[in-house]
Design brief:
It is a single chain. The chain has 227 residues and is of the alpha/beta class. The protein has one domain: Aldolase class I (TIM Barrel, Alpha-Beta Barrel), CATH 3.20.20. The chain is built from 7 helices and 8 strands. It has an 8-stranded parallel β-sheet. The longest helix has 15 residues. It is globular and about 45 Å long.
């Protein structure tokens, strides 16, 4: 799988093509889906541009993106301040405005309760691992593990989570993003790329947009996969 991480928690001034509104996210999702992406990871915003898990605002974003890319997995992050469990409980009646899967960081307090809240509203759980945690027993509803690593830490983190037997998405950030993508492709793990992870192409040039990052990521994924 190649996932596109379209915006993250970045501010508008960080890149002129950063998609923040539901309409801009839908446009970018359609562009990257045409390049072979089968999953998009987005961070919904409220009317003033702040990260949000509030039901109606999440629903507006998800439904708008889903209309542009029907059939594509839509993932969101739960790494947002506030009463996250209560807000997620309000997602139950959202129907087409509910994400398919949501990420939960295992280094944050209360992550198991958060995973349970997602499971109760029929949203799959993607656990995010960034350091060695001794993770052995998984909550209900976990369908994937995302490992955030540098090229130097990837091997040890993968050794921790691979025995759990779930699909793994491996990615890096900023200067490590392209190196980790290449390594993940060699190992045939899921990969991701987009303006959330890096604003730059491998040669240091600022990327034009998500589509340019994804087009190159797709080529590198294919060229490095075992034959």
């Amino acid at each position: 799988m190649l996932q596109a991480c379209l915006n993250g928690s970045r501010a508008a001034e960080e890149h002129p093509a950063l998609p923040l509104s539901p309409e801009r996210l839908a446009e970018d999702a359609a562009d990257v889906a045409a390049l072979g992406v089968t999953s998009v990871h987005i961070r919904p915003r409220d009317v003033i541009g702040a990260l949000t898990l509030v039901g109606p605002e999440v629903a507006t974003t998800i439904a708008t993106v889903r209309a542009a890319v029907p059939g594509i997995e839509i993932s969101v992050s739960t790494d947002v301040p506030g009463r996250r469990g209560t807000l997620i409980a309000s997602w139950a009646p959202l129907a087409s405005g509910r994400p398919d899967i949501a990420s939960v960081h295992v280094d944050q307090p209360g992550w198991r309760e958060l995973a349970q809240a997602l499971h109760q509203v029929n949203v799959k759980v993607e656990l995010v691992v960034e350091s060695r945690t001794g993770l052995t027993e998984l909550p209900d509803g976990v369908s994937r593990i995302t490992v955030v690593a540098t090229r130097d830490t990837a091997e040890s983190l993968l050794a921790q989570v691979e025995p759990l037997g779930l699909p793994i998405l491996l990615h890096g950030r900023d200067a490590e993003a392209w190196k980790v993508l290449d390594y993940a492709a060699i190992l045939e793990h899921h990969v991701r790329m987009g303006l959330e992870d890096t604003l730059e192409m491998p040669d240091g040039r600022t990327a034009k947009n998500n589509a340019e990052l994804i087009a190159l990521a797709r080529r590198r994924q294919r060229s490095r996969a075992p034959r």
